[in-house]
């Protein structure tokens, strides 16, 4: 299996854990300030990685068009949808947010077919149906409230951003694209915080708040590094299908640390999700051995 598949599978695990933990974090922190704190820390981490791994020269050599692409990625992927998602996560359940987020593969597949010429096969359509049904059964109950609507809007924007990123990754390294997303995204968010006055919350951060920000920032760093590196080598529509496995992780954590017990319908949902991923993942054929 290609390295890209392993990386995206890792992203799905990280996503499932992050959505579960972020639900607790936004209960004790303003979602907008929480988003900014995480994003700016990840931008710093990524900048340090660029320096340590000798990729500073690539950053300096970027053309105006490439800087513009990174700014767009920061706006569409690293700022507005984050603000919408974490505000929505504060207003709705983690399960609903996870379901909404995991519908992203549908919008990505359509956009990728139009703009990247990725093919939507019959096998993909069957897998997509299994993924949707499995994710619905796994979540069990959905609340279509204001929070769910915000998460849905964020998911649409992330779908656009992922298609743009897939295109940009043809010429730029994954760490440069990830840095552009988080750095420019942080700049847009700080403007938003300055306007609504949330930036003053930095003076009231407790030790517990700082711990939440640091821990979830590490998860976000792992998410963006594995995701963009994996996205370089596999179709973006396939990659977003694999992300649906994150729902299994989120729901499993809810059962492990909550009072609810899994139902037969949810067990069937897990099976359908796995079957859907198997159906949509198009593994490369083996290359003949050299003689």
Gist?
By secondary structure, the protein is mostly helical.
Which key terms come to mind for this protein?
single chain, 14 helices, disordered C terminus, 291 residues, globular, mainly alpha
Explain the overall architecture:
The protein has 291 residues and is an all-alpha fold. It has one domain (3-119, 142-251). 77% of the residues lie in helices and 0% in strands. The chain contains 14 helices and no strands. Helix 1 packs antiparallel against helix 11 and helix 4 runs antiparallel to helix 9. The two termini are 22 Å apart.
Instruction: Tell me the β content.
Output: under 5%
Distance between the termini: 22 Å
**What is the element string, with H for helices and E for strands?**
HHHHHHHHHHHHHH
Q: How would you sum up the global shape?
A: globular
Number of helices: 14
Helix/strand-derived category reads mainly alpha
As a whole number of angstroms, the C-alpha radius of gyration is: 19 Å
In the predicted model, the low-confidence regions spanning at least 5 consecutive residues are 287-291
* Helix share bin: over 70%
Largest sheet: none
- Kindly report the average pLDDT value: 87
Number of strand segments: 0
Number of domains: 1
């Amino acid at each position: 299996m290609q390295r890209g598949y392993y990386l995206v599978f890792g992203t799905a695990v990280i996503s499932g854990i992050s959505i579960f933990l972020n639900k607790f974090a936004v209960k004790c922190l303003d979602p907008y300030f929480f988003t900014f704190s995480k994003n700016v820390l990840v931008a710093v981490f990524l900048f340090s990685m660029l320096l340590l791994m000798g990729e500073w020269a690539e950053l300096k050599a970027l053309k105006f068009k490439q800087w513009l692409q990174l700014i767009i990625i920061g706006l569409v992927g690293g700022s507005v949808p984050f603000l919408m998602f974490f505000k929505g996560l504060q207003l709705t359940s983690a399960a609903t947010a996870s379901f909404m987020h995991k519908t992203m593969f549908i919008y990505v597949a359509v956009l990728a077919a139009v703009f990247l010429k990725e093919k939507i096969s019959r096998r993909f359509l069957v897998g997509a149906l299994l993924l949707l049904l499995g994710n619905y059964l796994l979540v069990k109950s959905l609340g279509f409230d204001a929070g769910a609507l915000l998460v849905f809007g964020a998911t649409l924007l992330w779908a656009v951003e992922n298609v743009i990123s897939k295109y940009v990754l043809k010429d730029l390294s994954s760490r440069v694209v990830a840095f552009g997303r988080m750095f420019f995204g942080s700049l847009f968010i700080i403007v938003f915080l300055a306007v609504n006055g949330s930036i003053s919350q930095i003076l009231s951060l407790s030790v517990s708040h700082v711990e939440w920000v640091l821990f979830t920032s590490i998860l976000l760093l792992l998410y963006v590094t594995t995701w963009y590196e994996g996205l370089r080598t596999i179709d973006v529509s396939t990659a977003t299908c694999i992300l649906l496995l994150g729902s299994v992780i989120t729901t499993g954590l809810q059962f492990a640390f909550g009072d609810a017990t899994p139902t037969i319908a949810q067990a069937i949902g897990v099976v359908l999700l796995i079957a859907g991923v198997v159906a949509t993942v198009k593994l490369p054929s083996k290359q003949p051995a050299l003689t």
